[in-house]
Amino acid sequence: MSNPVVAERYALALYQVGKEQNMSDKIDEELRTIKKVLVQNPGFINLLQSPKLSLEDKRNLIAKSFPNVSVPVINTLMLLADRHRENIMVEVAESYINRLNEERGIAEATVYSVRALTADESKAVSAVFAPKVGKQTLNIENIVDPNMLGGVKVRIGNRIFDGSLRGKLDRLGRKLTS
């Protein structure tokens, strides 16, 4: 079975537990943090996959690395370690987040801008672009790109809406040369 399918099954189980225990938001927040930690520290997964590390050592390492997470999340991480599926921890987190977002009509968006967006600007971007992708709202990650001349570039899934000044100049240049 491929990793995305396996990760989806673990995420679905965790999603169902979260719904039953009214912990969906808490689990979502914890998985976002865990995902961020694992992406920033790829050596952690490599360490967990080491054959020199016993199962008990793996479980202790996970427990010490994520001491404040809820029982369902820690149990899922332990189960993944027990079954030698440490390599899909990030995929499980992503799958859970995507499933919860889909239920709530939320899309993940990356907004590139010259400066950090204010809360009002983020709300405005969400109000404009969420309907374009058939969602109610956007969960925005703002990336400051000082190389942009102005405007914003919004990436939602595999769609890019380029309203940057650089993008407009590039399009104008292509139009003039054709």
UniProtKB/TrEMBL annotation:
GO terms for molecular function: hydrolase activity; proton-transporting ATP synthase activity, rotational mechanism. Pfam families: OSCP. It is found in: Cell membrane; Membrane. Belongs to the ATPase delta chain family. NCBIfam families: ATP_synt_delta, PRK05758.2-4. HAMAP family: ATP_synth_delta_bact. F(1)F(0) ATP synthase produces ATP from ADP in the presence of a proton or sodium gradient. F-type ATPases consist of two structural domains, F(1) containing the extramembraneous catalytic core and F(0) containing the membrane proton channel, linked together by a central stalk and a peripheral stalk. During catalysis, ATP synthesis in the catalytic domain of F(1) is coupled via a rotary mechanism of the central stalk subunits to proton translocation. This protein is part of the stalk that links CF(0) to CF(1). It either transmits conformational changes from CF(0) to CF(1) or is implicated in proton conduction. This is ATP synthase subunit delta. It comes from Siminovitchia fortis.
